[in-house]
From TrEMBL:
One Pfam family hit: Hydrolase
Native species: Candidatus Hakubella thermalkaliphila
PANTHER family cross-referenced by the UniProt entry: CADMIUM/ZINC-TRANSPORTING ATPASE HMA2-RELATED (PTHR48085), CADMIUM_ZINC-TRANSPORTING ATPASE HMA4-RELATED (PTHR48085:SF5)
One GO CC term on file: membrane
Protein name: Zn2+/Cd2+-exporting ATPase
Family recorded in the similarity comment: Belongs to the cation transport ATPase (P-type) (TC 3.A.3) family. Type IB subfamily.
Length: 156
């Protein structure tokens, strides 16, 4: 492979340059047309064209999937998707509804679940982050929201 490439690559480079320059200089060809023909020679003769086409196809596929509501973490995950036999979805609603929800509260140090939820919602109350909104929503549902009015903490 390397011995072949040692001669093939310079030969194809010379051919491409020749296609771009010789017809316009000696035969009155149009520069633009022959420049594009030289580019075709480079793309067809060079395996780089094949190597470049893969990332472009992956980016196009990820973009198309995103427009249709499917998110891939990267090209590697897209490429192994054909081997999937089963898919497990989380039950938080992040994937199915697009809105995360709190499913379980596991307090440490014997802290009361309602009090923990109230404290967490107080911390997250003004945040617009989707996980913060899920905590506040759960606290509202459980009537455990701490509301601060004029510096007074009121347990809703």
């Amino acid at each position: 492979g390397e011995r072949f490439g040692k001669y093939y690559t310079p030969a194809m480079s010379l051919l491409g340059v020749g296609v771009a320059i010789i017809p316009p200089l000696f035969f009155g060809g149009e520069w633009t047309a022959w420049f594009y023909r030289a580019l075709v020679v480079f793309v067809v003769s060079c395996s780089c064209g094949l190597a470049l086409s893969v990332p472009v196809a992956v980016v196009a596929a990820i973009g198309n999937a995103a427009r249709n509501g499917v998110v891939f973490k990267g090209g590697a995950y897209l490429e192994v998707a054909e081997k999937l036999r089963a898919i497990a979805f989380d039950k938080t609603g992040t994937l199915t509804i697009g809105r995360p929800t709190v499913t379980d509260i596991l307090p440490l140090n014997n802290l009361d679940t309602q009090k923990l939820l109230a404290l967490a919602s107080a911390v997250e109350f003004r945040s617009e982050h989707p996980l913060a909104e899920a905590i506040v929503r759960r606290a509202n549902e459980a009537s455990a929201l701490i509301v601060i009015v004029n510096g007074l903490r009121l347990l809703k």
